[in-house]
Amino acid sequence: MIIAIDGPAGVGKSTVAKLLAARLGYLYLDTGALYRAFAWKTLQSRIRPTDLEQVTGLLPTTTIHMQFHNGAIQVLVDGIDVTGELRTREVTAAASIVSAIPAVREWLLPIQRRIGRRGSVVAEGRDVGTKVFPSAPFKFFLDADADVRVARRHRELVAAGHGGTVDTTFRDLSERDRQDRTRSVDPLVPADDARLIDTSALSPDQVVDQMIAAVSTES
């Protein structure tokens, strides 16, 4: 069983996906963490994310593994635990760029699908229902008002120790949206059979309740 959750930043995907996975006893797969991990490797290698040739040249010498411990995710790049470094502004900005490179997306696709074969999974990202797991029986696309998304994203950054101003968060989020929605390969769009949920006025538990109701009804 795979449950796919897509949507832009700040709609509560990660929180909702973790809660849903915990309530169902499924694995939680954050596909964005894999792109962030490769972006981290790019920056550590002192390669500009916009340098297509050098970025793609890193792929054959890079290994990324995702481990699961009591519901928590640990991301390893070349054997190094980088989990705590994946939410910085620098990595976030680089991930937005490298994730638009077709070779990077194709390289990460089998890694994501291998994780999906480990068992029942709640997977969240930006192309999970359209590209990674197009045959997933349950697909959800979350969205929210722009102001709500900015506020949520800013709180996440502050809580993780990567603060900054609300205006900076707004600019970063707007640019990420533009890149995600307009990239030529696997842009951010709802799958044709995805259920749309506006999370603007809903708590994470309320969103999860809707998802569980949908899964229970059609299972």
Describe the structure.
This protein has 219 residues and is of the alpha/beta class. It has one domain (2-199): P-loop containing nucleotide triphosphate hydrolases (Rossmann fold, 3-Layer(aba) Sandwich). The chain is 50% helix and 17% strand. The protein is built from 9 helices and 8 strands. Strands 2-6-1-7-8 form a 5-stranded parallel beta sheet, with helices on both faces. A 3-stranded antiparallel beta sheet has the order 3-4-5, covered by helices on one side. Helix 1 crosses helix 9.
Task: Produce a short descriptive summary.
With 219 residues, the chain is α/β, with parallel strands linked by helices. It has helices at residues 13-24, 31-44, 52-58, 89-98, 102-116, 128-132, 146-159, 166-182, 204-218, and strands at 2-6, 27-30, 64-69, 72-77, 80-81, 121-125, 138-143, 195-198. A five-stranded parallel sheet has the order 2-6-1-7-8, sandwiched between helices.
